Amino acid sequence: MQIVIFDHEQQVADTAAQWIETLVNNKKSPILGLATGSTPIKLYQQLIRRYQEKKLTFKSTTSFNLDEYLGIDATNSQSYRHFMNENLFNHIDIDNTHTYLPTCAQGQNPREQGLAYEEKIKQLGGIDLQILGIGANGHIGFNEPTSSLASRTRIKTLSQQTLADNSRLFNNNEFQPTLAMTMGIATILDARYVLLMATGENKAKAVKDMITGPLSAICPASALQMHENAIILLDKTAASQLPDQEYYQWANAQNIKINQAFGLYHNY
Ligand code: GLP
Question: Is the pTM of this model over 0.90?
Fold first, then answer.
């Protein structure tokens, strides 16, 4: 794991945007894995700005989102499709037919839908860079605690904590889905690079468990310990419970020097 701690959350977003810009500008048909939630919003704003400044184009980019609610359709303003359209897709030049979310409409078979999503990712060559947030309970995507570390795209029942955390986004009397389709943990681990962003004090415990805890299904994000190229971008409040912070800062300074001396190594 490469752990980078910043003073401000804007630096987390800017650094993540730089990773995406490098990928999109260096690969012919880049495949991005995208996330929803409040954490990546600043990243998406930064990508829109860079697109407007003509620093990058998404014309040949394909995207796969981590998850989507069950029981509401794409036109619902609470759907993750709507979130992605509003916060990113409508403002850049990505081809909308090349943006995928793991959906399962009424009447469709979730097992078949999950398999088809996995197949589509594989068929297009796999995800180059997967963006992740983290739930306060350590979830990634909607892989709640006790999710199999070998899981693939499927239905998950949301935990009480996730429902409570996300209830702030729903009005009183508005239907809040309790089920979702989500990429599995194994799906996420298949990405060539994973970049997890966490900001704010309420993520500090999950971040500590992810990095220092045992590899355990009880903290799904701890599965990233098994990934060859996991980059963890934190602001100092999200990093506040981490031991050895000075070491991470020192190692990161060395990484910058190594990259300057030998060039950035990206095995996209
Ligand atoms: C959501 C999403 C996750 C996200 C997490 C944290 O419910 N399914 O992909 O990373 O919970 O969200 P936030 O960034 O709003 O804290």
Answer: yes
